[in-house]
Amino acid sequence: MTIKEIQENLKTITSRMEEACRQANRDPKEVRLLLATKTVPAENVQIAVDEGYHLLGENKIMEGLHKYNQLKSNMCEWHIIGHVQTNKVKHILKYADVVQSVDRMKLVRKLHNRCNFDDRDIDIFIQVNTSYEESKFGVAPEKALEFIKQVSEFPRLHIKGLMTIGILSSKDDKVRDCFKLLKEIQQKAMELNLPNASFDELSMGMSNDLELAILEGSTMIRVGTAIFGERPYPDSYYWNEN
Ligand SMILES: *Cc1c(COP(=O)(O)O)cnc(C)c1O
Fold it and tell me: Taking residues 42-59, what's their average pLDDT?
């Protein structure tokens, strides 16, 4: 990828976002672009950062930490968007601002313990498996509210919203159903009036389905391929335990 290509791609994504917002009757300021930077070398991420894009998402904790140390900017906001192995939790707090992929109690407890140890709090999203695909992480939709209630009892973890990966399908309806479901869970979660939790953020939509996600209320799209090009590994490498 050349500098020019990455700059062009960022422009294209921005106009796709704006067009989708127009169709959805939404203010483009309501939707933020998170750069999904897995496998992308720090030099290429730097190009996007220099263009003014400061919201970064990494899947692998150590890969993210490495890039964090390489990037020449302290203006970035770092999100963890991939499956977290609990033995990596201590490294998360070295650089991450938000963990979007919170999906099980073991991780919640470890993250909270580590926050206690470091004497700090952290923002989190709850990842929901709206596609019901076994290959995807995330709490099952029908268990999400119960899980959210449990998580809200950990005072150092501040729930800011929900995250999902839409189903990989050429049928728009099926993809939209995933995003609709996340929105429904958001509404119900808001009605719980939990302490220590707001549900403003809906992190949904990627290179191929960001328009559908914006139509369904996304506040944060996570885009990798359409900005940085194809990745050397299939996504299953990042989305599965093995
Ligand atoms: C890789 C990844 C993305 C970006 O996907 P693209 O199709 O490359 O835009 C978004 N979210 C998560 C959780 C990812 O792992």
Answer: 97
